[in-house]
Structure formats: structure tokens, C-alpha cells
Amino acid sequence: MRLARRFAISAGLAPEAADRLAVVVEEWIANIVEHGAPDRDARIVVRLALADAVVRVTISDPGRPFDPRDAPFAGPNHERGGGAGLALIASHCRIAAYDRRRGRNHVVLELPLA
Fold first, then answer.
1. Enclosing H/E stretch for 65
2. From CA 94, how far away is CA 34, in angstroms rounded?
3. CATH class for the domain made up of 2-112
4. Per-domain residue ranges of the chain
5. pLDDT mean by block of 10 residues, the chain; 114 residues
6. 39 CB contacts (<8 Å, ≥6 apart)?
7. How many CB atoms lie under 10 A from the CB of residue 20?
8. Helix, strand, coil share (%) of the chain residues, nearest 5
């Protein structure tokens, strides 16, 4: 995802951290589109910030309510080639917060750099 890559360059992230950030943002957005069923013209808002060796990823979307902290992991779905996205995201970062306000999901992910 270009947004994550541009942020990584401007923040001076190491290549490995930049790659992890891009995977997390891209996978999260893909999950919103695939599973959240937002309207075609829905607005997904992504904010990235760096503080204290942690990249904070804040994402807001109008998809179905989804608290990732409560999502079970049933393993990958070999038939359709997916199903491991949340596990992949969790391997790189921590889900710091989730809430649902005004018809939108708001999630905060924290990606440690150290």
C-alpha cells in the first residue's frame, strides 16, 4: 500500500519495519473490503503516527461491526486461499483498541519497531 510505504520513508523506518507496516495496512484494508461489506463508495480512513518506537495505525471504516479482539482463528482456508489475515496482523502488531461509533469501526493497531 502506497500510503504505508510513503509513511515509512518519511519516518525513516528500516526496510523490515516498512515491509511489516505495509503488510498490516494492506491486509487490514483487504479484510474490510472482503468481509466488512462496505458500500462501494465507502470511505476508509487510515492514520499513521510514529511515537516512542511504535507505529500507531488507526483505521476507521463503515463495514459490518467487527471487534478483532474477539475474532476466533480457525486456521487458513486452503480452498479459497485465505483465512490467515488476522493471525498475520497479530504476528506483527498489537490490537490496542476497538470501538464502534456512529456506524463506523475504529481500530488502533500498534506496530513495535524495537
1. none
2. 22
3. alpha beta
4. 2-112
5. 94 97 96 92 97 98 94 69 80 96 97 93
6. 62
7. 23
8. 40, 30, 30
